[in-house]
Amino acid sequence: MKLILSKSVKVNVSFLILLYIQCSKKLDVMSEKKKVVQVKNPKTGRYVKIDREKGRIVAHKKSDGPFKNVAVARKRS
């Protein structure tokens, strides 16, 4: 089944449906909260990883700077 948009442009409808499904899956993944986040410890000035489900510290960083590829927890407003 083809959809004619203009004289020279033809778009395959099944391709559009697949594209929509893939985009919606990516949006679902992006909207989920991460299981592990990081926060800066004000006393030491180092970052700490926290497991959201258990509420416990998973790891602490010995070097300066934040962990790579770990979301930073924000304050609730």
Automatic annotation (TrEMBL):
Which protein is depicted?
Uncharacterized protein
Superkingdom of this protein's organism: Bacteria
